[in-house]
Amino acid sequence: MPNTQTTTERAAVEQFARDYFDHLAPYVRLESVSAQHRGIQDTADWLQQTFRELGASYATQWNEPGGNPAVFAQFKGASDHTILFYNHYDVQPPEPLAEWHSEPFEPTFLDDGTVRARGIGDDKGELMCRLTAVRYLQDHGGLPCNLKFVVEGEEEVGSGHFDDYVAHHADDLAADVCVWEGGSKNEQEHFTVTGGVKGILAFDLSVRTADVDLHSSLGAYVDNAAWRLIDALHSLRTPERRLAVDGYYDLVETMSAGTRAAVDRMDFDADGLRERAGLRQPFLRDDPKLASVNEPSLTVNGFESGYTGDGVKTVIPREAHAKLDCRLAQGQTPQACFDLIRAQLDRNGFRDVEMTFQLGEDPFRSDLDDPYFAAATDVAKAVYGTDNVRVVPNSAGGGPQAPVAATLGLPIVSVGCGYYGSGAHAPNESLRVRDYQQGAWYMVELMRRMGAK
Asked: Locate the Peptidase M20 dimerisation domain: which residues (predicted)?
């Protein structure tokens, strides 16, 4: 039988979350677009002031390494246990603006139970949900444990300075566990508790075959930069569409039996993905669920060469450029993979193809048997129902978790209030109000559980 007192308080917290949303809504209205260098300082200032209003014993901004400031705050609680929360305040550009059905930076509540705005799903709504839990607990007896928040402003552009912030402020960030952003309900409406991220390597390839573009009548005997780069790219894949890079897969760590078992229990909506994306080709792997957790990838993000405008222009382009990213499995590192790809291009006869490193983040995976990870999962089962919770060893996406774990020695668990259809990074990004309310209750209970450990 449900505990009547718990049920009553849960309803009160969920109603409070909806009522308190308007107080936090200015956060969403701030146009903190890191890629366009706008709204950053105003947003950092708003966060610092809001933390102080919530009763933080200390709230400041860090900017020693340069780049966008990181906002740090700490709260004193009833126990000596400390939770470190990670979020980011920067958002993706709202473009293309014509595809939005409402103003991108004005939170708009819809009849379908969602609230629409840029960044509401990734990641402002999740931080708002956590701040709501703090406000509720402060108003109802105080915080059960110490809390720390670090909110960075460069996540959407690769977290270029976050490693330095962590190194500079390791003592400030010391905690027992780090609760990361990014949790959500999946396509089966199951709440996910995630233990890590894949790594990422982003780089550019370019080649120049002449000083000027040439008439295509010379194409019978003059090389073409576009074909040259296409050949270089093709040399990096096998007929089975795996990476043809010597030593690349040797770096991948063997999954533990427990991690593999967690993958087996994960949901994967293959048919739904095909339908939603309109996929016209079969999956690259027989087991796409396993691939999403532990398979490296090489993706051509974009390709540019020659003339692509209206009409006809018969030309041999003198240069070609491509942007690529690799999602890295556990054990791989950006620099090691970059070096292996460079060496493979050289062996394949493409020394003339230039390769430029853009960004890299190491992969990370928490110990799924860690007591704090287990506590987060147990609380999720209590809030959402035992059958409605799934453990994900690591997401297919990336993030700067590795430096936090390496420098601070913390287990990391990702939980949040998003959902599979939020449309993060796309026009009309949204958050479901019901998920937001449930997420506030989950956060209240999580703080209590971890405070009692």
From this structure: 196-348
Mean pLDDT on 28-34: 98
Residue 123 has what DSSP assignment?
A: I
For the stretch 277-292, pLDDT in tens is: 899 999 999 999 999 9
d(CA 294, CA 264): 12
Bridge partners (DSSP) of residue 302 are: 323
CATH 3.20.20.70 fits 199-252+296-361, yes or no: no
Count of Cβ atoms closer than 10 Å to residue 266 Cβ? 17
Q: Going by CATH, does the domain composed of 4-197+363-451 fall within 3.30.200.40? A: no
Long-range contact set of residues 217-225: C-beta below 8 Å, sequence gap at least 24: 217/314, 218/316, 219/316, 222/316, 224/316, 224/317, 225/305, 225/306, 225/316, 225/317, 225/318, 225/319, 225/320
Q: How confident is the model at residue 453 (pLDDT cuts 50, 70, 90)?
A: low
Q: Is 126 helix (H, G, I), strand (E, B) or coil?
A: helix
How would DSSP label each residue in 333-391? -HHHHHHHHHHHHHHTT-TTSEEEEEEEE--EE--TT-HHHHHHHHHHHHHH-GGGEEE
Q: Are strands 319-328 and 199-208 parallel, antiparallel or unpaired?
A: antiparallel
Q: Where do you find CATH 3.30.70.360 in the chain?
A: 199-252+296-361
